Amino acid sequence: MTNEPAAAPARRAPAGAAVLREDVTEAIRAAVLAELAAVGFSRMSIEGVARRAGVGKTAVYRRWKSKLHLVLDLIGAFAADGLPVPSTGSLYGDVRALLEVMSHVLRHPVASAVIPDLLVEAARNPEIAEAVRGALLDGQRRMAEGIVAEAVTRGELPPGLDPSKALDLALGPLYWRQVIIEDPVPPAYLDTLAHQVVAGLKA
C-alpha cells in the first residue's frame, strides 16, 4: 500500500458551455458581407446569414444578439477604433493623417455599402442611432481629442477648443464627397482640405 493521494479526476467543461470556433465566426462574418452586398441592411436577416455561412441560427446568436450588433461589429473594425492617434509634430500633418485614415475607411466596400444604409435606419430608431454612434464615432473622437491636445501643447491652438469642431470641419466634407456624391478623392484634395481645416480651427 502507498500513502499517495489518488489522482484528481480530469476536469470537464461545464455542460452546455459553448466553444466558439474561430473558423465558424469568420464564415459568419464573410456571409454578412455577402448578404449586405446582395440585399442591404434592411433586408438582411440572421436566417439568410446563417444559410449562406452554412451554420444554424444558434451559431450566429451565440456570437451576436441581433443583426445590428453583427453589422456594427464589422463596421467597428473599419471605423478608426484602435488606430494610433496621428503624431507628426504639426497640426497640419496630424489633420492630413486623420483625413488619409478616414478616406481609406470610407473607401472600404463594407463601409461604403453599409454606413449610408445604417444612417437611414438610425434616423428611425434611437437604439440603432446610439449603437451606430458608438461604433462609428468613438474611435474618431479619440483621434480628434489627441490631435487637438497635442496642438494645444505645441501652442498651435488655444486651450478649450472643442475636438468635435475638428471632426466636423474635417470629416463633414470628406463624407459628403466620398459617400453622398461619390466623387474621387485625390491626394491633392486631402492636402487642400487639411489646410482649410487647420485655418478654420485657428480662426
Architecture of the largest domain, according to CATH?
Orthogonal Bundle
Q: What class do helices, strands and sheet pairing give?
A: mainly alpha
Strand content is under 5%
Number of helices, counting only DSSP H or I runs of 4 residues or more: 9
Q: What is the CA-CA span between the terminal residues? A: 90 Å
Query: Roughly how many Å is the radius of gyration?
Result: 23 Å
SSE series: HHHHHHHHH
Specify the overall morphology.
elongated
Largest sheet: none
CATH fold assignment of the largest domain: Tetracycline Repressor, domain 2
How many domain units?
2
Mean pLDDT: 82
Poorly predicted regions: 4-17
Number of strands: 0
Using the coordinates above, name the CATH class of the largest domain.
Answer: Mainly Alpha
Percent in helix: 55-70%
By CATH's scheme, which homologous superfamily of the largest domain applies?
Answer: Tetracycline Repressor, domain 2
Describe the structure in your own words:
This protein has helices at 22-43, 46-53, 57-61, 67-76, 91-107, 109-124, 126-154, 163-180, 187-202. It is an all-alpha fold and 203 residues long. The protein folds into two domains: 22-63, Orthogonal Bundle (Arc Repressor Mutant, subunit A), CATH 1.10.10; 91-202, Orthogonal Bundle (Tetracycline Repressor, domain 2), CATH 1.10.357. The protein is elongated, with a radius of gyration of 23 Å. The model is unreliable at 4-17 (pLDDT under 50).
